[in-house]
Write a structure and sequence with these properties.
The protein is mostly helical. It has 19 helices and 2 strands. About 7% of the residues have low confidence.
């Protein structure tokens, strides 16, 4: 076998080995996706990588001295099998939306550069000559950016990794698109267009300007129009730089706006409808539904700018209606929020003051008793979903709080005890809401019944507890514990959802 023949076979082997590695990585990604998102149905597909791997290993062992005709046949077999496998994996990828891919890599932390690079190579491999589907373009855009960024330990912002290494990677991606070339004039124009987006981003001073301008969608559409040219190393570098700048700006504005909007949403859900008036009650219900949907998306790590913008629009529509009705009714704002004891005759329970948590209500004790009997070796999520605990509707973070207070007995338990109290408060809210719902079926019942007085006191307690959540969330953000802040925000929104439902039951005007 001549040297030329060896070189040709070696190049073909290297190409097929690379394709095999990217296909195997993508297969592993699909397996992980189904593990972390049980609700996702990728479907079953044959995954006989072992046979392909064995053939490639045999070729590698005999590359320099084996029968060339046999190796050519073996390479033909591998190429055919890889083509079939890639087609199967690509079909399975049709069920993987760009948001789902982002959620997976945002949730899974133990991956390295090679995993992301192999994912990019898999998506680039079967592009062919047609246009790149927008979803595939979005996935590639995300993966390349994820591959290129790291968190600055001082500022907490995202920055680019070593540019020399990135250029090597980008050049490798570009080489996977043979026959695609770009004229110098076009290259310069495209880079200038990206720079104009960067300049526009710098002029957007707040969340409202960012969302109202449609900047994010317009930049995304521009990247779709670039198609394969996006992967030219020079263009890709400018695109990734812009992506990182957008990501930092969105995170900065989002945190501020989320806190503001949720505070205002909470205020409207609390005050809602003090006097009868058309329009506001249905608006409050719609706002509550929007908060519930936002909470569900937070649980899936799938919150988008549009979700927060929707909450903002609803708040902006309801706020002036509420203010006008309060003026007409002569309402005066300013509940003191200092009394946490329930009124006499309401059952004798006491909800703890923030910073002085000593609650031992029946609901709190139920949580302690049930979790005390759970398996300490099981994960918090497994405990929360277990048969004996599920009815409490606890979150894994609340299981962690119980273990830190009752099992580990750590020194600083202020936050952990607060979370257990808030969980107990949710149980009481739902218990009282159920009692009121049953009573409302009786025509003789009025809102002067003791249960209504008790429930009104509970909503006042919940209002202060919600405010207390904000201080813990702010502390977590200041410590750059964004994962902890998100978990606390989820618990806060669950409390808002439940107590707003109780508030509507006890404050809705009589219909007769």
């Amino acid at each position: 076998m001549s040297t030329t023949d060896i070189v040709v076979l070696h190049r073909r082997y290297v190409d097929l080995a690379g394709r095999f590695k990217s296909a195997w990585t993508f297969h592993q990604f699909l397996q992980g996706l189904q593990k972390f998102f049980a609700e996702v149905e990728i479907g079953r597909y044959p995954s006989d990588f072992q046979e392909i791997h064995g053939t490639l290993k045999s070729i590698a062992d005999n590359l320099n001295g084996g029968d060339p005709q046999r190796m050519i046949r073996d390479l033909d077999i591998v190429e055919r099998q890889l083509g079939q496998m890639t087609a199967i994996l690509t079909a399975a990828d049709g069920r993987v939306t760009p948001p789902l891919l982002r959620q997976f890599f945002d949730r899974v932390k133990n991956f390295d550069e090679q995993i992301l690079a192999q994912m990019v190579r898999f998506y680039l491999g079967p592009l062919g000559e047609g246009a790149i589907h927008p979803d595939r373009q979005d996935k590639l855009d995300f993966l390349v950016t994820k591959l290129s960024e790291e968190v600055d330990r001082v500022t907490g912002s995202f920055v680019l990794r070593d540019r020399t290494r990135l250029r090597e990677l980008y050049q490798g991606f570009w080489s996977m698109l043979p026959g695609v070339s770009i004229e110098p004039e076009m290259l310069s124009t495209r880079k200038s267009e990206v720079e104009l987006f960067r300049q526009e981003l710098g002029g957007l001073g707040n969340f409202e300007e960012l969302t109202g301008s449609g900047f994010v969608q317009r930049f995304r559409d521009f990247k779709h129009l670039l198609g394969r040219y996006l992967f030219h190393p020079e263009i890709l570098m400018t695109i990734v730089e812009a992506n990182v700048a957008v990501k930092n700006r969105v995170r900065q504005y989002y945190r501020v706006e989320e806190q503001r909007i949720l505070e205002e949403s909470h205020k409207i859900l609390q005050e809602g409808s003090d006097t009868p008036g058309a329009g506001l009650d249905s608006g409050v219900i719609e706002l509550r539904q929007a908060v519930e949907q936002f909470e569900r998306k937070q649980q899936r790590d799938n919150v988008k700018l549009d979700d927060l913008a929707l909450l903002r629009r609803q708040v902006e529509e309801l706020a002036p209606v509420l203010a006008a009705r309060k003026r007409r009714a002569g309402a005066v704002e300013g509940a003191d929020g200092a009394a946490f004891d329930l009124p006499d005759g309401a059952g004798g329970e006491t909800v703890a003051l923030p910073g002085s948590i000593e609650t031992r209500s029946p609901h709190y004790q139920e949580i302690v008793d049930v979790l005390g009997a759970s398996d300490e070796r099981a994960t918090p999520k497994a405990v929360a979903l277990s048969r004996d605990v599920y009815h409490l509707r606890l979150e894994p973070r609340e299981v962690v709080a119980f273990r830190r207070v009752e099992v580990e007995q750590i020194a600083d338990t202020e936050l952990e005890r607060f979370l257990l109290d808030a969980a107990a408060l949710r149980l009481r809210i739902n218990h009282e809401a159920g009692q009121i719902t049953e009573l409302l079926d009786e025509s003789s019942v009025t809102k002067d019944a003791p249960i209504f007085e008790r429930a009104r006191a509970t909503t006042r307690v919940a209002d202060v507890v919600v405010q207390r959540f904000s201080s813990f969330i702010d502390a977590a953000v200041q410590e750059s514990s964004f994962g902890e802040a998100q978990q606390l925000q989820l618990l806060r929104m669950r409390l808002i959802r439940d107590y707003s439902g109780l508030w509507l039951l006890v404050n809705r005007p009589n219909q007769n």
